[in-house]
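Worked example

This section walks through a single chain of length 378. The input is the sequence exactly as stored; nothing has been trimmed or padded.
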Amino acid sequence: MRVGTSSTLGGRGVRATPTAPHAEIAGLGIDPDDLPDGLVVADEQGRVICFNAAAARITAVPAADALGLPLERALPLEDLEGRRWWQLTDPYGGLAIRVGQPERNLLLPGAREVLVSARYIRTEPTGPVRRVVVSLRDTEARRRTERSHAELIATVAHELRSPLTSVKGFTATLLAKWERFTDDQKKLMLETVDADANRVTRLIAELLDISRIDSGRLEVRRQPVDIGAAVGRHIQAYVAAGQPADRFLLRIEQPLPDLWADPDKIDQVLSNLLENAVRHGEGTVTIDVTPTASPREGEDTGTSVTVSDEGTGIPEESMNRVFTRFWRGSKRGGTGLGLYIVKGIVEAHGGTITVGRAPSGGAEFRFTLPVGAPAYLA
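Given that input, the structure is written out below as tokens.
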């Protein structure tokens, strides 16, 4: 423990006589400079007795300059309306029942935003304030979250505009000029409307999935799943849609362990990975289904599915961003949300997913699922 001349918190930059509460903090063996957030402590006179390294970084004020200053001078905070924060809150002369201030955005000199919360320490419930403990955090993490939300809104607005414009245009035309079109023309327009409606439905489903993944509320309803048969159905759908049958190679290593998973969500994972391989890859799309070690402790076996193609692959510098929101492997459409959802689904099953380069040089996605048997079968 590094101690100043008379430390109350056991940390550098502290200049006060020890008291019992601070001695307990010191007894934890924590130096204030090791805390990730800014910590500023003022004594009963309102003078700064602790100004840790994070506070110095966030405020751009050296700790040596802040120590001993009145709190309002060491931290000249203003609210977003330009009012001086310490005069407004008056921690030492305000209501005796007040225990602190909740976190909020305030401004440092130069209009730099900072997240501030405060706690008022009293020796008696309504006694005088003995210490004011202030926590500081910069707003970069919040700004990143806000940018991510803004990007999501912009992406959704862009993706919705096109199909909804098409739906509106065709329905308005049909309603206004129904008698002028032949049956074939009407059928073509309605098929287009139906396809665009499906596109909107898929986008809404993606948004719901993202919401559930981000909030940890993605439910997995486990049932027995024949993963080989599930892959086979997806391949047959692509062949029926016009893809050559010899573009797909399915290899299943037997015996596979019994797999309990959510069949709809596993179909979603397979659909996304195969669509990426078909749309963005080239050559043969190979799907290997093999037994493997379980990614979850307490289980011996799991099932691994590898989807690879013979295209140009994913650049090395992009591989760490593949499963993030809005990543697109090419400019050929898509919201960039699919692989983010795939990762969330696999991890909700207790599995893992990786991306790499296939032996043929293309992209290779491999996800591994634990057996996942329900507890009553264990």
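What to look for: The first helix runs from residue 20 to 26.
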